Amino acid sequence: MKSIVALALSKHNLYDAIQISVDQKAKFNCEQLTIVTYKSNESFFATVNNIDHIIYIDENKIRQIFKSPIYPVAFAINEFLSNLEPLMNKEWDFCLNIYNSPITNYIAGALNARNTIGSKIDTGSRVDDTNWSKIESLNSTMGQHSIDKESIWRKRFATQFHNNAFKIDETKSSLASTNLSRIKKQLKRSNDSKFVGVIVNESTTKDIDSYAYLFNSLFANEMYIPLAIFDKNNDRSDFIDRLNEKVRHDIISIECTQKALPSVIINLNAIIAESSPVISLANYLDIPTIELMSTNDDLYGTFTRTVGNFIICSHEVPTNEACLSLNQLFATELEVEAISSRSRIYYITEDESYARYKTVHGPFNLEEQITKRLNEYLIDTIFSENKSQYPFASMNSEQSTMLKSICEQRRFELTGFVKKILSCMRLLKSASSSKEKAMSFFAELGELIHFRSEDFTIRWLAATFEDSAQNVKSSTFSERLRLLEIKLFELKDKVQIYKDVLEIKPRDIERSREENIEVRNEQTQ
Amino acid sequence: MREEFDLQVKQSKDDLAVPVVNEVYLHSMYQPINEASAFAEGYREQLKKKNVVLMLGLGFCYHIQAIIEVLKQYHADYTIMVIEPCGELYSAVRERKLIPDSVIVMNPESPTELYNNEMFVNFLLESPLIIKHDPSFNLHFDYFKRTLSYKSSTQMKDNYSLIKDNCKHFFDEEFEGSWDDFVNTRSTDNNNNIIFALNELVSEQGA
Question: Does position A453 have pLDDT exceeding 70, yes or no?
Fold first, then answer.
């Protein structure tokens, strides 16, 4: 019986982790899926399908014992090791490390698994299963230069998300359906009218006047019935009361538990919510979403997962933008007044390799878009087996100028990196002659590995080089130097490909790649 | 060494047994049950909100019985733990079968013995309402003061005996130093990954 254990501790992307785990279970034909998570996430698992065991780590208890001076640390140790006992006493076919966090990397390294999907710590060093795991860890520090999480997950887990992880309680769902039909009748709305759930949760931060405006706008149109949905355990009734004072009708609110949430959501036609996990849950249940992000958020933090949904970046509750998005979703004609020129609306599409965030309104950030495409292309060109199309084949002059400017900046940053590689190669030649020279070489190698750059690709090249350099193990010093020299040459080759891309010589790159593939094919034959 | 106490039992005016420890009367000599009811009444508002109680002082349980009566009005379930330093009193209460069901009595020799008891630690993690039985508290003032301001040893060798047997192989009985010292001296051997994982967990900010 094939078994898979998924490490999914953090609450932040837990719905994603559940969905990915269930998908990976099916992908690898495993009969048993065990999930390891924090005890505080227990309520998330009340409504899941296809998960066979759940192991909880009582993180709050462990931290509380550990941090309080009155309790012996031994009890925190006992608790942690007891929690993990069922995990350690078993041989697993697969360990799925979803978040690649420091703690899950250590747990993945401690357990007995034939295959690890994600990262793990092996004799003190981080080992990534693919370059995409490495990219994800770098990504979180790269802000707007990062590649979106959705695309990385598609690459890392090589899977399409399916609606098979979340259980709908038929009784609760049919009760919700009956209640909603009754509301429709009471309001004398047509059968075609749409229920739009507006999620009011602990992360609801935008001002109440804007929410009132949103409710009024939706309610004024025959086609929409807005509902305020809030978590029973997170009392937001004060917010609803204050909202009620400001709207022209009684707000219809639904108070539901975490357990009932999927059964309620499945009966709605759309969800509007500030960035929170409920967005991804709705997406996995095939319910359209409009995610409200702050303009300060970068798209890396989005919870929107599937194509056909909208993300609005704005400081206020973007009522007009939400109405515009609803018009596009349902081909309706909600009145849309002035839209803030500073807010942006993205529509999610996809191509063969990546999720795409198409700007449908608002200032188009050309630099961000080109940077993202360039990063993706560079990664595919340098590391991926899958050939990707050169993304800048047809550009107008503005785009071309921007691309040139970005490439120029990157070439400038690359110069310093190349100098460091060459310096390492030079010092390596004499490293075996004395202890001082060996130390100079390793000091320079350290600087190369931790090369500071704003450039995503350079940081990434340095980080992947670090992995390969750490894996160089040899019984003799001279052999170790020889192997490190090979690694440095490999890095130099990758940098050369990078330089070719930055020189904007797509035909050369394509030709070079085709030649490489031909050579590889010949060798295989 | 456990401190010895002089225990006598006297009869109240309404003919109930009243313990006298080192010449200190632990309950009213007139109507101990009425006194206990008035005592519990003073905690009614807090007991409405909290069903976990740590009582400092056992006496002959009149006050505990009164607290239970209040708790029952608001909660289907409740837990009471009592700390009593006097061994002689604890024996007398057990002999007389005065301890109500579902009440746990701890009679440790010292605060260290108390805090080295995992059941007590798990109980404290539930953030109980702490109620002191004043005559007992004043009688054992130093003991309770040390209990309430207790700090556990941070030395790993003092913790070794408390670690479960099947987990002991990760640790060194003689190790001199704190948890941080211990982690810093571990090799990067994969067998230590679980220790590093725990260290990451307790170092993480928030959940």
Answer: yes
* Cα A198 off chain centre by: 24
Of B125, B163, B190, the CB nearest to A123: B190
* Mutate which: A10, A71, A89, A120, vs B, most B CBs within 10 A: A71
List C-alpha distances in Å: B161 to A66, A201, B156.
17, 46, 10
Of the candidates B122, B185, B127, the residue with the CA atom closest to the CA atom of residue A79: B122
Distance of CA A191 to the CA centre of its chain: 37
Nearest neighbour of A103 by CB, restricted to B150, B170, B201: B201
Strand spans (E) along A79-118? 91-97, 112-117
**B155 is written with which tokens?**
């030395």
Indicate yes or no: pTM above 0.90: no
Residue A282 CB burial class (10 angstroms; 0-12, 13-18, ≥19): buried
Angle (CA) A330-A333-A336 rounded to 5° is 115
pLDDT tens digits for range A68-77? 999 999 999 9
**B95-154 residues touching A, CB cutoff 8 A:** 115-116, 118, 121, 124-125, 150-154
Chain A residues with CB-CB distance to B150 below 8 A? 70
A107/B197 touch (CB, cutoff 8 Å), yes or no: yes
Q: Which residues in chain B are contacts of A74 at CB distance < 8 A?
A: 159-160, 162-163
State the count of interchain CB pairs (< 8 A) between A and B: 106
pLDDT in tens, chain B (207 residues): 788 999 999 999 999 999 999 999 999 999 999 999 999 999 999 999 999 999 999 999 999 999 999 999 999 999 999 999 999 999 999 999 999 998 999 999 999 999 999 999 999 999 999 999 999 999 999 999 999 999 999 999 999 999 999 889 999 899 999 999 999 999 988 999 999 999 999 987 543
* pLDDT tier for residue A511 given thresholds of 50, 70 and 90: low
pLDDT of residue A296: 65
Q: What are phi and psi of B20, to 5 degrees?
A: -125, 115
Q: Nearest residue of A to residue B120 by CA position?
A: A71
Strand partners, A393: none
> Per DSSP, which regions of A232-383 are E strands?
252-256, 270-274, 289-293, 310-313, 344-350, 355-361
Tokens of A331: 């081909």
Residue B176 DSSP label: -
**In angstroms, what separates the C-alpha of B189 from chain A's closest C-alpha?**
5
Q: Is residue B207 less than 8 Å (CB to CB) from chain A?
A: yes
Task: Give the 3-state DSSP-derived string for A284-328, with helices as H, strands as E and coil as C.
Answer: HCCCCEEEEECCCCCHHHCCCCCCCCEEEECCCCCHHHHHHHHHH
pLDDT of B15 reads 94
**What totals of helices (H) and strands (E) does chain B contain, helices first?**
11, 7
Residue A250, phi-psi category: left (phi > 0), alpha (psi -120 to 50), beta (remainder): beta
Distance, in Å, from the CA atom of A221 to the CA atom of A190, rounded to the nearest integer, reads: 12
Contact A72 B124 (CB under 8 A): no
Q: Enter the ipTM.
A: 0.91
| Residue A118 backbone class (left: φ over 0; alpha: ψ -120 to 50; beta: rest) | left
